[in-house]
Amino acid sequence: MSRVFNFSAGPSTLPVEVLEQARQEMLDWQGSGMSVMEMSHRGKHFMAIAEAMKNDLIELLAIPANYQVLFLQGGASAQFALIPQNILNGKTKAAYVNTGAWSTSAIKEAGKYCEVQLSASAETSGFTTVPTLNTWQIDSDAAYLHYTSNETIHGVEFSEIPDVADIPLVCDMSSNILSRQFDVSRFGLIYAGAQKNMGPSGVTVVIVRDDLLGLTQDTVPSVFNYQLQAKSDSMLNTPATYNWYLLGLVLQWSKRQGGLAAIEQTNIRKAQKLYQAIDASVLYRNPVDPEYRSRMNVPFVLADAGLDKEFLRLADAAGLSSLPGHRSVGGMRASIYNAMSEAGVDALIDFMAEFERTH
Ligand SMILES: *Cc1c(COP(=O)(O)O)cnc(C)c1O
Asked: PROSITE patterns recorded for this chain (predicted)?
């Protein structure tokens, strides 16, 4: 067996230790005589797995007691539609900031359920920066303000949490949750699909402040009603049990790395050396404003796009996989989530230098 360095944007590489433990426990989870896949979600074994998983997430993110943590299905994309239906609170308007492809999708979907006020947009820059914070327009009758803390496709990441006074701040953290320390109490609601930094696809984490519960519109399906799910520990119906288990293993692994403080330091180091290599080269270029370059997703283009195919072919042959950029932007993208080792980043940098030397 040989494993490649997998730079996929999501689903993405997982820690080998996690995969090995899952393999080890596949047929018989800790003496239960069954696979986690085969367990009743109401039985004592799975309840223990679920409780430990939730507590580990609360510990890692230091989630205050006045927040509920939900584990839902439907991906982050389902939340694009569910957030307005759950927290508009009788209002008709919500404010959104557009920093790239994922905020654009969130805005489009929210527009089916409310009037979207576009508070700020980086579209004219080609989504290579974050609009200056003090220029954002937020109407006083907007129910909340939504932004995307890391734009997975454009490689743009907020370096700080925007200060929006009293309005509930809602954030799509799908591609940078668990990658850095941050203060949960600044937010009304945080959501993230698992398949970037937390595990396989199929489970979406929603962290919601208590005062935003109980506001759900009557037409919303019960399984997507935040308060009903909070009351039933996200088990209103059968959850994605195996995905919860794998998410739990990734959280345990994250704790063994030293938690978010240690993980953040490693991520800073990995991202810095990759951007430095790109900036120092003649062949490669990253278009993003240095202040807002993502630590998770590093897009880059070659000075001669005619070399793209050859770059990808040789990279694949060298065990560096899934480097094509998103089809909407082209070029290359290296996603270097928590589970991408520093050795993987070093191997990519060495390969890029060698490719530049020989082309
Ligand atoms: C991947 C991603 C999504 C979409 O997630 P799904 O689980 O496929 O719906 C949304 N937002 C961001 C920032 C993402 O990276």
From this structure: AA_TRANSFER_CLASS_5
Query: Model confidence over 282-315: pLDDT tens digits?
Result: 999 999 999 999 999 999 999 999 999 999 999 9
Q: For the CA atoms of 253, 254, 259, 263, what is the dihedral angle to 10 degrees?
A: 120
User: Which residue, 43, 344, 296, is CA-closest to 150?
Assistant: 296
Residue of the CA atom closest to atom 13 of ligand 1? 174
- Catalytic (active site) residue 172: yes
**Which residue among the candidates 29, 54, 56, 172 is catalytic per the annotation?**
172
Measure the CA–CA gap between 7 and 323, rounded to whole angstroms.
Answer: 6
Q: Please name the residue whose Cα sits nearest to atom 2 of ligand 1.
A: 174
Tokens of 118: 């576009």
Whether residues 296 and 352 fall in one domain:
yes
- Binding residues for pyridoxal 5'-phosphate, by number, are 76-77, 102, 152, 172, 195, 237-238
Q: Which domain holds residue 308?
A: 259-358
C-alpha of residue 77 to centroid of ligand 1, in Å: 6
Low-confidence ranges of the chain (pLDDT < 50): none
Q: 263 with 188, same domain?
A: no
Q: Flag whether the pTM goes above 0.90.
A: yes
What CATH number should be reported for the domain holding residue 354?
A: 3.90.1150.10
Among 29, 54, 56, 102, which one carries the catalytic annotation? 102
Is residue 16 domain-resident? no
The count of C-alpha atoms lying within 13 angstroms of the C-alpha of 149, restricted to the half-sphere facing its C-beta, is: 25
- Kindly name the residue from 29, 54, 56, 196 that is annotated as catalytic: 196
Q: Domain check: are 236 and 209 in the same one?
A: yes
CB distance 192 to 174 below 8 Å: yes
Amino acid at 312: L
Residue partners of 294: CB distance under 8 A and separation at least 6: 150, 151, 152, 155, 156, 157, 175, 176, 271, 288
Distance (Å, rounded) from C-alpha 10 to C-alpha 266? 20
Q: Tell me whether residue 54 is one of the annotated catalytic residues.
A: no
